[in-house]
Amino acid sequence: MKVNKIYLPIIICLSIAIGLLLGNFITNFLPGAVLTKNPKSEKLNKLINFIDNEYVDDINTDSIVDLTVNGILEKLDPHSVYIAKNEVEEVNQSMKGDFVGIGINFYLHKDTVVVIKPIKNGPSDKAGIKSGDRILFADKFQLFGKKITNETLFSKLKGEEGSEVELTVFRKSTNKKFKVNVTRDVVPIKSVDIATLIDDKTGYIKVNRFAETTEDEFHKAIVNLKSIGATELIIDLRDNGGGYLEIAAEMVDEFLKDKELIVKTINKKGTEEKTFATKKGDFETGQLTILINENSASASEVLAGAIQDNDRGIIVGRRSFGKGLVQREMPLGDGSMIRLTVARYYTPSGRSIQKPYEDKADAYFNEFEKRFISGELYEADSIKVADSLKFRTKKGRIVYGGGGITPDVFVPYEAKHGEEGTLMIMKSGIVSYFVFEQLDKDRNFFNKMTKEELKKEITSKDKYLTIFKDYIAQNGYMLNFTNQKDKVKTYLYAEFVRQLFDEDSYYQIILSQDAMIKKVMEKK
What we know:
It comes from Flavobacterium ponti. The protein is an alpha+beta fold. The chain has 3 domains: about 5-95 and about 190-415, 2-enoyl-CoA Hydratase, Chain A, domain 1 (Alpha-Beta Complex); about 100-190, Pdz3 Domain, CATH 2.30.42.10; about 420-520, no CATH class. The protein has helices at about 10-25, 40-55, 60-75, 85-95, 125, 150-155, 215-225, 245-250, 300-310, 360-365, 365-375, 420-425, 430-440, 445, 450-460, 465-475, 485-500, 505-510, 515-520; strands at about 80-85, 100, 105-110, 110-120, 135-140, 140, 165-170, 175-185, 185-190, 190-195, 200-205, 230-235, 260-265, 270-275, 290, 315, 325-330, 335-345, 390, 400, 410. Strands 3, 4, 5, 6, 7 and 8 form a 6-stranded antiparallel β-sheet that branches. The two termini are about 50 Å apart.
């Protein structure tokens, strides 16, 4: 199956949209929350009943109710949203931190489910499934040659823990078809992408969300890095759209001393709740750096703001998104729910970093484009701050509220003017699909290579660069790689390494070229 066509506006907005979708999860969840009855709700109930019982044509009133709820929430703030009942499971799973399934990374290639890579030590890996395998049947249900919705596909591969599914598999590398039983098991959804040493004393942790399991993963990462020599830490929150407020607070507690303020929330009634650090932190001393960018939002900003305001570490990067609202999930009784803004949060210095939201919907979320036009992505002087929103950190440094966390050290966008599209492409999923398809042509050829041999194959000539350029052109996007050949080759090589070897090696390659990492290491 062909990868969907890529259009520049979508490319530019994609990571913001995905990040802010996760950012809506910053919530103090109360399972028992209910909506009380009042005359206004009775009015809506009567209207729906009249349409149900008296309207001349048959109408799906469920869809009318959905439209009504969405219409009401659109009048509020951009983060108060309705979640339809068919979306609730996926939403909850994303933040739960695991699911029960067969444990594969896959995509639909030419209308067939192909395995990019089985999750290490997961059910499929244990059953002998390999990269490049085609899954033709799940039990007797055909998975190829017809259009299958993601919902249907997931329903066939997921199931109860301990249940079995018989997979019919075609292995292209040996040209054989076989059947294998896979026992479904709990598969983790990682919040910590990687925890590794950049040099002999600098640990690096990349966090992609703040879910139920994130603090546990984060704590283990810190302890492990310390055990192998890390005395300094870089926490990467770039493109992290957020998550649970309480999880962010627990993670901050790893770095702050007992009784230092982490965050404060104030609700409609003026009730103020403060969260303080405890004695349990595992990295209360040692150099700390937090990386942020324009897509770092919500819980990411809670963490960065607490570190900055307590003068515990240095914030490096570009101004964060600016989401200072707290949501609570409330069930509507039919399996659907709303995520309603119930409070604002404030950093320890007292600042709200929520940006104005009079301009809602697409314009509100399309922060990258606005900052690109203003020049803020390239020049720190283009960051607009209001003197009226001036606050002071614990040691008296000036910080600003009203629209994100402004970094202590500014690092401009990596791509030069006119080359933004190339960088967006290289950080998108299309690179993964391209590399998979190249490996799929002759997996035996690549499997024999060492990393050095692979590097020479990919980067010493323009062969794969040219093929990649044609590949994305077929998907509707034209790029000029003339000034970025080396960078594109590096990204391609890194993805080949990820699929053939491991995640850690991928990040070692990418981070060696990373502008923010270079800035941090220069200042040491």
